Sequence to fold (188 residues):
Amino acid sequence: MKGRFFLDAGTLFAAGRRGVMICLAGAVFGVLFNAVSPRGIDLLGPVPHRVAKGIGELRLEEAWALHKERTGVFVDARSAEEFGAGHIPGALLLPLDGFDEAVASWTDLIPLETLVITYCAGAGCDSSWDVAELLKEEGYSRVKVFFGGWEQWKGAGYPVEKEEQTGKEPKGTSLLQSNREVSRPEGG
Fold:
């Protein structure tokens, strides 16, 4: 039978084995590329994305426990307007925009060995990470990020604090503030 091409079992097995090896190599390459890509897909669940910088990440329960124990200082990295509309009780305002201007007076109030917990709007906001890194550069050694941020805190029904409507900028850089209103959502 001229013109027909016949393959024996050995040839088919070898071709199949090469195909499997190519697929495995492609999968390994894909996983490795995903791991180093800044836009990689989260394959194992949420993991801290800046641990290499020496900044730990806190989950909601951990942040709540530290807040209840009054351990550390919570730092809101959002804008003054967002801070004034509501924030974690006792938090200090240290927005990413204007960090350089605010940090000089802020470092006089907070000792460098203090546990500092930064947060911003939520998981989609990186300002808390940026402020945490800047605080590390300023000499703060105990810096953590509450990754769930304001959205998760408020959504859990934990206490919130608002600046009174005075028409002034929030006094978030002061440790002692007399114009705050603390509220806890109904049923909390």
The chain has two domains: 1-45, 51-183. The first helix runs from residue 9 to 36. Residues 1-45 form one domain.
